[in-house]
Design a protein that fits this description.
By secondary structure, this protein is of the alpha/beta class. It has eight helices and six strands; from the N terminus they run H-E-H-H-E-E-E-H-E-H-E-H-H-H. It has one domain: Rossmann fold.
């Protein structure tokens, strides 16, 4: 794919995206763990990583004109009630003490329905969203799309070209796979 073709399709995609206005529900720590290990971080370093992610998502949100909600776990050290705030245009939810982010995400999926797209690599959440006919994009796929959208076009173009097309007998995609591919194209 030539860069001019990519940019032309990208601008067309942005126009379509603005009309669609997807709502992305993101499993926050799941997306953070895609790019680096957060096991040995102090609470201050972890807070810095969360803020960096929020900044990236804010830039992505402005480009794509979509609504973003990020859910973080607060079940071990959080507050007694669910905490909601907005930073840089991104809605952030911290689950309450004793409640995992997974449960909050499931509740949001149920509320928003098929107008939402869930970003997670958690199989349990993905299965639940699939049952509710909500598209699911893995965290690593979303990270790639976000990097492309936020200016890493040159680096990722080489990765996409090297993958090539699949060979072999064709087969029909399941409804779940079709929804996921359609949502991924919208990102």
């Amino acid at each position: 794919m030539r860069i001019s073709d990519f940019l032309r399709s990208y601008s067309t995609f942005r126009i379509l995206q603005s009309a669609i206005g997807m709502h992305l529900i993101i499993d926050g720590y799941n997306l953070l763990h895609v790019s680096r290990s957060l096991i040995h971080l102090t609470s201050v370093q972890l807070q810095w990583e969360r803020e960096r992610l929020i900044s990236q998502l804010s830039a992505y949100q402005k480009m794509k004109l979509s609504q973003i909600t990020v859910v973080f776990d607060g079940w071990q050290g959080g507050e007694a009630t669910e905490k909601r705030e907005t930073q840089k245009g991104v809605e952030i939810i911290y689950s309450r003490l004793g409640e995992k982010a997974d449960e909050v995400i499931k509740r949001l999926v149920k509320e928003r329905g098929s107008a939402a797209v869930v970003i997670t690599s958690d199989r349990e959440i993905a299965r639940y969203a699939g049952k509710m006919a909500v598209s699911v994009i893995s965290s690593d796929q979303f990270r790639e799309k976000m990097e492309i959208a936020c200016g890493d076009v040159e680096k990722n173009l080489g990765n996409e070209e090297s993958r090539g097309k699949q060979k072999g007998p064709s087969r029909r995609l399941s409804k779940k796979e079709k929804r996921a591919r359609a949502a991924l194209k919208k990102l």
